[in-house]
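Example record

The entry below shows one chain as it appears in the dataset: sequence first, then structure tokens.
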Amino acid sequence: MARLAMALDYKNCINCKACETACKEENGILRGADKHRIWVGTGEIKGEYPLLDIVSNTFYPSQCQHCDDAPCEDVCPTHATYTDDNGVVRVDVEKCILCTYCINACPYDARYVEDVVTNTVDKCNFCSDTRLERGETTTACQNTCPTKVRIFGDLDDPNSEISEVLRTREHFSLKSHLGTNPKLFYLT
């Protein structure tokens, strides 16, 4: 048993979309689909003094935050959304009734209706039912990133790369004030 998480060195992101393409390929999602498990967003950051007028674009890779206290799990009437033994928030497609409560409850907009294959709500599951099940130790998005934005691993292993980087670098989580305790960390 592990407590899987991901750290994102988001400043290294060049918005090449290799992570999105790899995720789609790994999970059988149509390449042109606009709804998918991970995405890269853009944001603007104003420069700091003395360059206050400079605005730069920053790319923000994102996905399900795999919250320790997942609001999407709390509202699921059939318990289709659950946390597995590795701390990964997952969806049991056999139990999902497409009520979309989880979509509305997710503060990170990480859930969507997969209407091609399963006709259920879907989300990132850290490749639990594909790569990890085959014994691989990386996610498809991490494996393909040319600038090494993503670091995936076990928070309970003090010698793992993710544990080391979270000990040695400053980081933050999105919307931490909500108390969801996400396991997606952004490195500063």
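Notes for this example: Residues 18-27 form the longest helix (10 residues). Helices lie at 18-27, 71-75, 101-105, 140-144, 161-168.
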